[in-house]
Hints:
The protein is mainly α. It has 8 helices and no strands. The chain has 2 domains: 13-89, no CATH class; 110-195, no CATH class.
Amino acid sequence: MKYNTEVKRLILPEYGRNIQNMVDHCLTIEDAVERKRCANSIINIMGCMFPHLRDVNDFKHILWDHLAIMSDFQLDIEYPYEIIKKEDLYSRPPIVPYNDGRIRYKHYGKTLENMIKRANDYPEGEEKDVLIKLLANQMKKSFLTWNKETVDDRKIFDDLAELSGGQIILDEEQYRLTASRDILARKNKNYIRKAGR
């Protein structure tokens, strides 16, 4: 009996030593047709080990990639999928470019700032007025998320004017926003409903 410390290290330990031994045996088969049949049998066994993953997209493709990895890319068969390349296996993914753009008011968020910029480009009319009112109400909701006290509509209108570069200026007489108490009451009602579930 051999101890695990005496045998070679498993490349993909989740499949276990027996599957690795099958892959090693498959590498030694001379006949190409028999080798392909053996590889198909190994794939079927590997698939049965993780039946809950069968709903994953490209499940079979992943299994064939794993077979190639376990054989150290030396298994000479006609693969039904394009398998991963050995050099791609160990290469680092590209660095994710982070947006280092400054957010003027963090409680509103970058998305709301971008929406205000887009609203600037809207043609004048009823559609733009409705959009601006929705944005102003959303700004008030966002403000109340971080500041649980009431907020004056004038503050929202001033922030909207600043974020739009002075292009959207609202009059308190013309635009009425949802009352702070209504927004907070709605949030509390949603919180209680979720907690009671």
